[in-house]
Amino acid sequence: MAEVTSEQRGRVRVLFLDNPPVNGLGFDLRTGLMAGIEAAMADDDVDAVVIAGAGRMFSGGADITEFNTPKSSAEPFLTQVITAIETSSKPVVAAIHGVSAGGGLELPLGCHYRIAAKGTRLGLPEVNLGILPGAGGTQRMPRLTGVEAALQLIVSGDLVPAEKALALGFVDEVTDGDVVDAGVAAGERLAAGGELRRSSEVEDKIAGARGKPEIFEAFKKSIARKARGYEAPYACIESIENAVNMPFDEGLAAEREIFKRCVSSVQSKALRHAFFAEREAQKIPDVPKDTPKTDVTSAGVIGAGTMGGGIAMNFVNAGIPVTIVEAEQENLDRGLGVIEKNYANTVSKGRLSQDAMDTRMGLITGTTDMNHLAQAEVVIEAVFENMDLKKEIFGALDKICKPGAILASNTSTLDMDEIASATSRPEAVLGTHFFSPANVMKLLENVRAEKTSPETIATVMAMTKKIGKVGVLVGVCDGFVGNRMLYAYSRQAGFLIEEGALPQDVDKVIFDFGFPMGPFAMGDLAGLDVGWRIRQEQEATRPKDLRYSPTADRVCEMGRFGQKTSAGWYRYEDGSRTPVPDPEIEALILSVSEELGIERRAVSDEEILQRCMYPLINEGAKILEEGLAMRASDIDVVWLYGYGFPRYRGGPMFYADTVGVKHVYDTMSALYDEHGEWLKPAPLLKSLAESGKGFGDM
Ligand code: 3HC
Ligand code: NAI
Description:
alpha/beta; 2-enoyl-CoA Hydratase, Chain A, domain 1; Rossmann fold; N-(1-d-carboxylethyl)-l-norvaline Dehydrogenase, domain 2; 3 domains; eight-stranded mixed sheet; six-stranded mixed sheet; 29 helices; binds 3-hydroxybutanoyl-coenzyme A; binds 1,4-dihydronicotinamide adenine dinucleotide
């Protein structure tokens, strides 16, 4: 139950925010807090008030689940509670521990004194939800820290450690003792005399920026690349600029208006969807929270190639020792060398200390003897994509690894059930599909095979979190969730260039939509030979009655594999990663169109977007129908973390809901009539469209 409880300590009243799990400041807590403050102010036995959090943190901020519901617009608003605190005659102290985020920090900013326990993380992460701090945070923070620091903190949304908050000036004291005791002591001290410091009245730190729009323009420029497409960072800047140029009350009122604008925006809804989708993906109906699991404290990786090396780095980055097995010493040395070089690069950029690098390298053991994996709790295989080889390895691992050890494969296309069949413990086998570069990309598709046990899933989902990844549980199919959808999208991109567009036209539309790059630039980055090899292997089984685009194969036949050969769909100047359109490719594309008897036509940007995104959504619908993803929001998480789908659009399935599933279905139906089988609408898309529902209603 959400409530504010109180405790009398001498002449100090302690109010505890109590609303597990994060003490979200919803309607009940706001009401309880207002009542607690009013009662304390009216009570002659109270000289000071301390506000603290019950449980594991002070507060994670406003209750996001209440946004856009009547409760969020019911008084008292958080701003009113904070104003009541700040204007009170008795001192109010915030005693902060765990996390103090969003409204859960704006509340302390309105108190007269702030103490944080060591280890507390504080910040205003609202921007990540497509909003700005809406309870005075943009007005009080710059008054305490100065404009530059406030811009940095609010626009990044970062949570910072208590010590940094102290240095920046928005915390007054850091304690390694009991924070409530320290709060009570501070309350007694403040009550004994001296003036109460009200953040809203501090002017000296913002005065210098008054009438200087250039400060804000320069900051906007500095974030332009990272914030491309996002509205909220600019809303935060606008409001901080108001703090500087308007009297406090006016700035606060303007903040409220900007907040209202943001909170009802599609972007904010999408970003909140992404926040909850990521957490929802961790919930697996038949793997309840209390499923027994092993804490992974040692791991093995087989294959020190592109993926194996990156996978191993994830473990040692999390302090988990890892044994890497290669078939040949030479390949092992090369693989370990790549890892070392990667770390050395990070050290040279100042993002890792030499000591930390040494510790990490020290956690890696390289060997050519698989028997060294006998004690590993998890072994991840990342050898060549070849079924016979993988089965041979799994058969060997089954004999070597200790009972209970989990055997995982990083395969991107192969049938996990068949791989599991090579062992006597299929319940301990699953896919862990990392994305390249594996040490950077956050997504991990954990692939549940037919016999994978709940214990194995629970262990691997927990391990995924421990190594800093976002895990999504998916089923077995070609390409799993992400790549299967990617095929549907890149296939259309291939057709579009045969019909009249050029790679740069398609890439521009996708970039403008918000992806970091379009499909052709992405192909060049990943290496075109990978897909080429897979297509060659699948040539015999490829359905010959379906349209096939040969252009990508032709590009590879020219020896153009992408960035690594300085030429692919684009050409690359020496040492540059910037794609430059190449007349040679244009000539190739025109000749392929001619060969196929396609009369080239003007392809509009709208068609490019729909031809790329709607088949992607359609494939997602098929995946849902087939039960290969548990929920539409899981698919969104896959695309947000594995492919750079613009987060402010929420992921492909959420995006479909925002443009309307009926519209997607109608467009797909028209495209199907025009272009045939590949664009056939999924039955689920049809049924949702007909019932006027969206993926979010499922
Ligand atoms: N409102 C509602 N639910 C919240 C919440 C919030 N502000 N913050 C977290 N939760 C929920 C999560 O959805 C999750 O629910 P689940 O158990 O059902 O999946 C549960 O609380 C625990 O969350 P985490 O798993 O994320 O817990 P962690 O301990 O890992 O992290 C945290 C804690 C750092 C507070 C993290 O939850 C977080 O970043 N929360 C969001 C913080 C935020 O954005 N605050 C701003 C809110 S908007 C605001 O304050 C507006 C104001 O300016 C007016
Ligand atoms: P790679 O060719 O870079 O590395 C494979 C490594 O395995 C080589 O170093 C090779 O020497 C080693 N190896 C081969 N046989 C071995 C054996 N018997 N014992 C020990 N080591 C052996 O390949 P890459 O790209 O790292 O791919 C590995 C796996 O990851 C494949 O299954 C691939 O499909 C998958 N994958 C690849 C992605 C990518 O973008 N490259 C993305 C996701 C998955």
